[in-house]
Each structure stands twice: as structure tokens, then as C-alpha cells.
Amino acid sequence: MKKKIRIDAKEMISLMVLFEMGTSMMSIPGRNAGKDAWIAILISMVFGAMLFVCYGSLHRRFPDLLMTQYCRTLLGKKAGSALAFLYIVFFLYGGARDLRDTGILIADRTLQHTPLTIICALMIGLVMYVMHLGIEVAGRTAIIMLILLLLLGLVTNILILLAGIVDMGNILPIAEHGWQPIWQVVYSQAVMLPYGEMVTFAMILPTLKKGYRANGVGLSAILLGGLLLSVVTLSNVLALGENVFKRATYPLLSMISKVEISDLIDRIDVIGVMTVIIFDFFKIFIFYYATVKAAEDVLRISYRKLILPFGLIMLVSCILMALGYQHHLVIGEFVLKWLFPIFAVFFPFLLLIVSWLKKTRIKKGEENAP
Fold first, then answer.
1. Which residues of the chain have pLDDT under 50?
2. Rg (CA), the chain
3. Rounded to an integer, what distance in angstroms lies between the CA atom of residue 250 and that of residue 275?
4. Is 2 helix (H, G, I), strand (E, B) or coil?
5. DSSP E strands: which ranges in the chain?
6. Pairwise CA distance, residues 65 & 73, whole Å
7. Which residue of 2, 113, 328, 330 is surrounded by the most CB atoms within 10 Å?
8. Omega within 30 of 0 (cis) for the link into 173
């Protein structure tokens, strides 16, 4: 009998926090709010928690089913299978986009003379290897990596304070231009990235060990990740100022590169690059895992046979999805604003409503039964 794969709450929370931080560490969602971006992230965290309650409620209703499976249960075989296929495309796009983002970062900061294709191929190769090892190995590794990254973050913030580059005046006055710019980025950017993307965990929650509540685990991760991301954003604003923070391609790395303490400590931006790459790796892995498991369910083919094909598809997709960096950003803004809400908000709430209606109908049927 095939052993059921299970991971505990600490491993799930670690995976979720790493996923949340992911490419958010690079781009900082809500940057258009300027020095108030950290407030936008805190507000978005509340909405992100509401979204996850929806995902967790569906999991509680179908604790042993993947999202693609209860799509068919609730919507019927044809409509459910069609929606499941759309989610395969959604997960695949998310992973391919993050793979390209990470490849561009590495090519820009460390391997300037290495083709983007080679960098992305090495990254997806490592993702495929972890997929082969299994989600349990990824969960245990996530705990270690999260602790390491939190320690590195603590050391980096201490160095930033010692370097004397923090200016409290950079965040004052708060909400100088009113609350409208903050609410605009909450809607257009900061909720979907990263909280809307957490719908991906609807493909992973069935692996959570019995006895743990999905909503409790998810909300804990969203709270921790949201606070961490808000602190990172606040640190960037304090160290860089609003103008540089909004213009910088990678605000976090720009901030870390300013750290210089006498002749003893400087050029510690390698720590920032390593941190971002680790966060991004786990985010790509989660998207890839969801893609392969969804495809396994829809195509009725063992996921081990799909690891290589979907790895190659994700690699090719990440290379061909945009003509250049600016084109990549324009596509990303459009998808984030108009397409992500469909998969992160509309479809999950539709499934939840259908679930409630079916449950109510069943109860009424039982009450009316002789």
C-alpha cells in the first residue's frame, strides 16, 4: 500500500513563508506607494488572510483532495476538468515567471557573461531534483533555510544600523499624499503578490498531517511573512529614501550595497543576492510542485513521469514569455491586475459557494427524508 505523504505544521509554515517572501524580496510589492509601501503591505496582509480562509475552508470540506480534484467534485467532470487544466496553466505561468525573474537577477548581479537560458536551466534542474526527492524533503529543508535566512536578516539589519545609513525622516510624514495611493497599490499589486499566489497551496494542504488546522497554519504563515516583508520594506525606505526606493531595480540589494563599516566590512550585497535566490528557489519549487501534481491528477500519469517534461516546458516558457525586461514587466503588471484575481479570488470563492450550496441541499434532503 502506497504511503501517504505528510508534512507537519512547522514544515508547512516554513514553505509558506519562503513562498511569500520569494520574488517579493526583489520587487517589493506596493512600491508605487513610495515611503508608505510598508503600510500597503500590512493592509494587504489582512486581505491575504481573508483569502486564505477561503482556501482553508475548502480544504476543511475536502481534506484529502487536491484543488483539481474537488473542482470536479463540485462542478462536474467536464467543467471541473476544464478548470483544473486552467489551474495547470496558471501554476506553470507563475513558476516560469519567477524562474525568469531569478535568472535575470543572477545574470545581472553575479554571472553577467552567462546566458539566461543556462542560468534558468540550472535552477529548474535543481527544482526538478528536489521534486524527485519529495515534498517531505523540501519541507525539512525549508525549516533549516528559513532559520538561516532569519539569522542573516538579523545580522544584516544590525550592520545597516551600525553603518549609519538609516534616516527616520525618510518615512515622515506618514500618508503624506493621503490614503488613495496606498489603497491603489493594495488592489493592483500588494494583495495578489504574494497573497493571491497562496492559492497554490490548495495543491499542498492535503499533505498536512492530521491534527493541524489548515487555517491556523496558513494564517500564522501569512502573519509572519507579512510582518517580515513589511519590515524589509520599511528598512529599504529608511536607508534609501523614497526616490531611490521607487527607482531602484532591486531595492533590497541597493540598500545592502550601501553598508560600509570602516575598511573592515563592505560589499556584503552577496548576502542579499544569496538570500533572494534561496527565497525564489522555494517559490519556483512550490509552483512547479503544484503544476506537476495538478497534471498528474488531470492526465492520470504518475508525477514522476511528468517531472522532466514539465521542467522543460517551464524552462522554455520562461525564456519565450517576453521579448525583453521591460516587456516582461508590462506583461507582469497586466497579469497581476487582471488575471491573478480570477484564479486567486473568483474561482476559489465560486467553489466555496457551490460547496456551501451542496452541503445545504444535502442537509435539507436529510431533514425531509422520512
1. 1
2. 21
3. 13
4. coil
5. 260-261, 265-266
6. 10
7. 328
8. yes
